[in-house]
Amino acid sequence: xxxxxxxxxxxxxxxxxxxxxxxxxxxxxxxxxxxxxxxxxxxxxxxxxxxxxxxxxxxxxxxxxxxxxxxxxxxxxxxxxxxxxxxxxxxxxxxxxxxxxxxxxxxxxxxxxxxxxxxxxxxxxxxxxxxxxxxxxxxxxxxxxxxxxxxxxxxxxxxxxxxxxxxxxxxxxxxxxxxxxxxxxxxxxxxxxxxxxxxxxxxxxxxxxxxxxxxxxxxxxxxxxxxxxxxxxxxxxxxxxxxxxxxxxxxxxxxxxxxxxxxxxxxxxxxxxxxxxxxxxxxxxxxxxxxxxxxxxxxxxxxxxxxxxxxxxxxxxxxxxxxxxxxxxxxxxxxxxxxxxxxxxxxxxxxxxxxxxxxxxxxxxxxxxxxxxxxxxxxxxxxxxxxxxxxxxxxxxxxxxxxxxxxxxxxxxxxxxxxxxxxxxxxxxxxxxxxxxxxxxxxxxxxxxxxxxxxxxxxxxxxxxxxxxxxxxxxxxxxxxxxxxxxxxxxxxxxxxxxxxxxxxxxxxxxxxxxxxxxxxxxxxxxxxxxxxxxxxxxxxxxxxxxxxxxxxxxxxxxxxxxxxxxxxxxxxxxxxxxxxxxxxxxxxxxxxxxxxxxxxxxxxxxxxxxxxxxxxxxxxxxxxxxxxxxxxxxxxxxxxxxxxxxxxxxxxxxxxxxxxxxxxxxxxxxxxxxxxxxxxxxxxxxxxxxxxxxxxxxxxxxxxxxxxxxxxxxxxxxxxxxxxxxxxxxxxxxxxxxx
Length: 740
Known about the structure:
Blueprint: E1 2-7, H1 33-38, E2 53-59, E3 65-71, H2 73-76, E4 81-85, E5 109-110, E6 116-122, H3 125-134, E7 136-141, E8 169-172, H4 175-181, E9 184-192, E10 204-210, E11 213-218, H5 223-234, E12 241-244, H6 260-272, E13 276-279, H7 282-288, E14 295-303, E15 309-320, E16 342-351, H8 365-383, H9 387-393, H10 411-422, E17 435-436, E18 439-451, E19 457-463, E20 469-472, H11 482-494, E21 501-504, H12 521-544, E22 552-554, E23 557-559, E24 565-567, E25 576-584, H13 587-590, E26 594-606, E27 612-622, H14 629-648, E28 680-684, H15 708-720, H16 731-734
Parallel strand pairs: 1-25, 2-13, 11-12, 15-16, 20-21, 27-28
Antiparallel strand pairs: 2-6, 3-5, 3-7, 4-6, 8-16, 9-14, 10-11, 10-13, 14-15, 17-18, 18-26, 19-20, 19-25, 22-23, 23-24, 26-27
């Protein structure tokens, strides 16, 4: 049995609103939590099939050119070494928006430092690592482009809008005239560096062949996409590949498509006729998997004396490997966040010899709202307005460019509630005007917006004769709470206690999902579970002889108003199953859909050393129905931490001579630690988004990252009077402007 919901019209009546004592919307602990903390959840590298060998990637020791010879004689003479694979099917970089197409393959032509050019396989990891170090690489080096800022003149428009997700160039009205006539004008340049996803779990794959069928245990956010890319790279049909990713230790976009270790493990295992494991070291992850591209942004805002924006110009130059489609769409939120009749958003790309640029948490919005929200702070200062008031005066009624209504938009409420919650009225009002001993104190705020995506997804829900429910979908849980949220939805709709629900994720043999990414995992997979459960309710009610609209589902039973109970297990015979699916429809194009929020921040900057400490934080968000307030709050807090890191510490440093990443581990690439982060207060406003999906929910995973870095930057200016537009804001950039 199949059931499909297509979002052609707003979903005015959700069954979730009929549940007397719902789990959805309450703070539920993760069902998979006990397995993870006890070590029973097996991640990719924790699989040890019999007779398994270990592989270590060989990487190019130069930034651009061609490998002319690999001398593997010393490696092959070492104890335990089985083979050195230099197959042309190996990939130079990972996939992202490549669909089923394989990423660029081949090991001879090198386009970035650290590019995989082979894999050494041995009986133990230590033997493979030692052998890899003994391989001699001869090469012909060529001149490369390793510094985006030095090559801005070579910037050109991207070649693809990534299936319509990202707009390359839009223009409305007459921005030059509006700027010339304006009472206030901000014109600034902001730069953001390459950043690493730095997920806790490194990339790892264990490949096993049985005849011509491959099974791969791996760590990927979108198993089907990865499977299809892997199959294409290997030259086999996707039906010959099964990929398993039931537990993923973080991804942030860095595990959306196939990466070099998966292809290397599969080829080596095929050659040797035995399982092969390839686990990336932390240095491998930095050098060969992907990064957030660097950006150079010029942003102009022009307003009349009343503070109403007359012109917005957001021009971005970003960097990427030659031939790759993805670009960092820094202007993506600028299209919808504020009103203004005259507008221009533009993106260009400099082709560089650096590791592949890929999606990283809130692609576009994370770095684009750094510049936009800092520019709004500067504009408010020019006009003598409260930054919140400036934003309220520029709230659009409809999408400023498309002219379509918002599905729901509670940004104004977020700003007002957040200001009250933070105590914004008592903020420092004079830059550099508040001090306690050696510490300058400042307050800043920023708005947040993250587009709400929706895609096709499928899930199978089975009810067994014992009354237990099983949910099966290829969807993954990358630490976001998918296991728990899907069980909550099924529990509410079928009236089955959550301890009698089993959730199976991350297997490409199960119904296809959208995967985890783009903040759409819970809403798409959850809506597919909703569709399946809606049909199951009809089947269970019919078996009980009750009209579906009169049936009450609770306490593992179905009953009518007369209180006669029918245990669910007694209604299903040998079991029943429905495959539910959802598809985007006209509602997804007729409405502008996004989640919104507001951040409020206090910082302390040491007047002598320039050290910055974030001392207080409040964020208020609106994202439709919140499915699990505990996991959603956790996601929001993690997003804010991400934004603080981007503002203060995170930067991949490339050697301008070779493109080599010189801070390629967590000792030198500085992500925030516990001591860097204060208690983060998060509040979600009550909201329903009827055009979004049957759950009336929107994505939350990336919303916290949007705008949070700008709140830090604005607070630093408020504390010191120093504007820094070159991120991250390290103390060396503050010291010259600090007071005596």
